[in-house]
Amino acid sequence: MQPLIKPDVVIIEDDQDFCFLVEKAMEQIDKGIKLTFINDGRRGLEFLNTNREKNIVPGMILLDLYLPGLSGLDLLRQIKGINFFKQVPVILFTTSDSAKDKKTALEYGANAYYTKPPGYNDLINTLRSLLENYFHTTLNKTRL
User: Fold this and answer.
1) Domain range annotation of the chain
2) CB 131 within 8 A of CB 114
3) CA proximity to 93, closest of 135, 119, 57, 130
4) pLDDT confidence tier of residue 139, bands split at 50, 70 and 90
5) Which H/E stretch holds residue 98?
6) Separation of CA 37 from chain center
7) Cβ burial, residue 1 (10 Å; 0-12/13-18/19+)
8) Is residue 135 helix, strand or coil?
9) Separation of first and last alpha carbons in the chain
10) What secondary structure letter does DSSP report for 31?
11) Rounded CA gap, 97 and 89, in Å?
12) Distance between CA atoms of 90 and 78, rounded to whole angstroms?
């Protein structure tokens, strides 16, 4: 049976202020996309495994590098090691601009590596671009 792919975004991020900004930005971009926020790497893996048991795969995972419970890189390696999730775009979205972190993330299978943008409008533009690239859809262009 084919997995049910939902146009949902799972955001594994422990910075609550950043989560709030992402939620507001996504509301401006496309209110139809369901967001699931998880603030711990280990809980993120549990959530994904529970969905795998239900044959549900998210449309995209945004993953912070520095997480409690299980680091973003360790979580990325585990996600990409599960065949069920191999086709899910996993985007590292972090404050680190370290070339070593980026190289390691891409080696572990990240589809992209983004440093968190400094401003709200840049966040909207970055998220819109990610959704268009990975959901292959044109989204409503909000004037900023």
Assistant:
1) 4-134
2) no
3) 130
4) very low
5) none
6) 10
7) exposed
8) helix
9) 43
10) T
11) 20
12) 12
Amino acid identity for residue 109 in this structure: G
Q: Shortest CA distance to 18 belongs to which of 47, 39, 33?
A: 39
Single-letter residue type at 3: P
**Token digits for 61?**
């995972």
- The amino acid that residue 54 corresponds to is K
- Per-residue pLDDT, averaged over 94-104, amounts to 93
pLDDT digits (tens, 9 = 90+) for 2-51: 665 566 899 999 999 999 999 999 999 988 889 999 999 999 999 999 99
Query: Token pair for residue 128?
Result: 């819109």
Instruction: Please state, in angstroms and rounded to a whole number, the distance separating the CA atoms of residues 37 and 14.
Output: 9
pTM of this prediction? 0.88
Cα gap 32→30, rounded to integer Å: 5
CATH of region 4-134, choose from 3.40.50.10710, 3.10.20.90, 3.40.50.2300, 1.10.1040.10: 3.40.50.2300
- Separation between Cα atoms, residue 72 and residue 63, nearest integer Å: 6
Identify the H or E element spanning 28: helix 16-29
